[in-house]
Design brief:
It contains 18 helices and no strands. The protein is mainly alpha-helical and 530 residues long. The protein is globular, with a radius of gyration of 25 Å. The two termini are 26 Å apart.
């Protein structure tokens, strides 16, 4: 005779969607709280790129090598990727206010410890703590921005939040380079302390909390997802340095990722108490938005990974000059996010904005395929501005359509899924473009060398260089440097072509989006067995 299932406490009923003019969590000092939330967002997103330019300085100070120092970046990325999916459960279990304060405090503490690290082992451990703390800050900050604003102001709220998300990675290398050049590499971490303390104080006094919901924890699902995401991130982060599938390590990581993620998918749709509510996966707008966020991660972060090295190595710009040339991309994002918020409020179909934004971004990438080594800085500025304008049109309306179809109690999990998708898209994009770049340089170099003949050189006959003794070696070294430079440029242009195609092919995904009508429906929290 079958035993009866143990009784479970009924889940708290989700709050009803707020009426027009009423926020889900009304607050008095909404402007000041917005400032605190945005400080947390910008501080966290800056740390994804601010440490990149300081790596050469860290190598000597921490006793690391060129290969091992990359764990400073890898540890942060992997820790964030593993922790993001449990944001929704922790928020319900501990309370959204408590989790936000804990993650902000943990981030401040970890930043201080990173600045004081004396060796690589300490730095990696502290970066793991920083990555875990940072993982919760993005989804929670987005949820708070939606909760404290009534429905008619949520488009503007998402525009403000999106500015921090999109501009942060662009400003990171600039700020990191300035701090490293004028102070010390440790200040790329110490700079978080004053900002973090101001942020923590504002959140402590003003941040409201949602009601705590008792939910069971899907340990099996979380373990599968954590192992799968960690293996996937490690594979993409270390693939280029380990010669991809020529390495046993990469094969192991790929197999572990594939098996774990496949098992998680099966468990997600067949388990009694899955990690995420199944209602989320039935939401067409959310699933499509998750796919779009992966594309945004590829386009934005892959471009940001390519351009600084390109501008400095091929064009000779300094770190500060490079940062200034990349700033128009952020300016474009700010402009169109503000404009798109106004257009959505005036009744413009957000699907048209998303499709137009992707098309504009594809055009900017296509323009980049026509760059030459002889041009001035103007094409960098124009293409960056255009690309920023396109991404700004995509980000805010996409977020609005996704969250307009979610109940307030589903926002944190929805946000965590979109942030995870963007992070994975960024990892995939950066890995692919750096691999294509390295192999493209080798291929282009091999194709160019046979063309260095007496018939193609007007002033230098390679066969006669031996007459000049030691000068011949210098001439050939200069010729080889120029060949390397040209080969690198060809490889960069091929990468831009690849990103153009990916962006253009993503435009038809707009047809899967639905324009929200009316308030978000209330989902049954018991549907997923929570």
């Amino acid at each position: 005779m079958a035993t009866a299932a143990p009784a479970r406490a009924p889940a708290a009923a989700p709050p009803a969607p707020p009426a027009p003019g009423v926020a889900a969590l009304p607050v008095r000092q909404r402007g000041l709280l917005t400032l605190g939330v945005m400080l947390a967002t910008i501080m966290q997103i800056l740390d994804t790129t601010i440490a990149n330019v300081a790596l050469p300085h860290m190598t000597t100070a921490l006793g690391a090598t060129a290969d091992t120092i990359t764990w400073v970046l890898t540890s942060y990325i992997v820790a964030s990727a593993i922790a993001i999916p449990i944001t929704g459960w922790l928020s319900d279990r501990l309370g959204s206010r408590n989790l936000f304060l804990l993650s902000t405090g943990g981030f401040i503490l970890a930043s201080a410890l990173c600045g004081m690290a004396q060796n690589l082992e300490e730095m990696v451990a502290f970066r793991l703590l920083q990555g875990v703390s940072a993982a919760f800050m993005n989804p929670l900050s987005q949820t708070v921005m939606l909760d404290i604003n009534p429905p008619e102001r949520q488009a503007k709220a998402m525009a403000i939040w999106g500015m921090g998300i999109m501009v942060g990675p662009i400003m990171g290398p600039v700020i990191g380079g300035w701090l490293t050049d004028n102070f010390n590499w440790r200040w790329v971490f110490y700079v978080n302390l004053p900002l973090g303390l101001i942020c923590f104080a504002i959140l402590w006094f003003l941040l409201p909390s949602r009601p705590i919901r008792k939910r069971s924890f899907d340990l099996f699902g979380f373990s599968l997802l954590s192992v799968g995401v960690a293996a996937l991130q490690l594979m993409f982060d270390r693939g280029q340095g380990e010669d991809w599938f020529g390495s046993t390590e990469i094969w192991i990581e790929a197999l572990v990722a594939a098996i774990a993620l496949w098992m998680f998918t099966i468990h997600m749709f067949t388990g009694k108490r899955p990690m995420f509510e199944r209602e989320l996966w039935k939401n067409r707008n959310l699933v499509t938005a998750i796919a779009f966020m992966a594309v945004i991660g590829v386009v934005m972060m892959a471009t940001m990974a390519l351009l600084p090295a390109m501008l400095q190595s091929l064009y000779g710009y300094s770190v500060m000059q490079t940062g200034l040339l990349l700033m128009p991309r952020g300016v474009g994002v700010v402009i169109t996010m503000a404009v798109s918020a106004q257009l959505v409020q005036r009744g413009v179909d957000p699907r048209w904005l998303v499709g137009s934004g992707l098309a504009i971004a594809a055009v900017s990438l296509w323009e980049m395929t026509h760059w030459t080594l002889m041009m001035d800085s103007w094409p960098f500025i124009v293409s960056g501005l255009i690309q920023g304008l396109g991404l700004g049109f995509v980000f805010m309306p996409l977020q609005g359509m996704a969250f307009a179809t979610l109940g307030p109690h589903q926002r944190t999990e929805g946000s965590s899924l979109m942030n995870l998708s963007r992070n994975i898209g960024a990892s995939v994009g950066i890995s692919i473009v750096t691999t294509l770049l390295a192999r493209g340089i080798q291929t282009s170099h091999a194709d160019l060398v046979p063309n260095i003949t007496a018939q193609r050189l007007d002033t230098i006959d390679p066969a006669m260089l031996s007459m000049f003794g030691g000068s011949a070696d210098a001439v050939m070294a200069m010729a080889n440097m120029e060949i390397n430079r040209q080969a690198a440029m060809i490889a960069y242009l091929n990468d831009f072509w690849a990103m153009t195609i990916v962006t253009a092919l993503s435009v038809p995904l707009v047809v899967f989006l639905r324009r929200p009508k009316g308030p978000a429906p209330k989902a049954d929290p018991g549907a997923a067995g929570h």
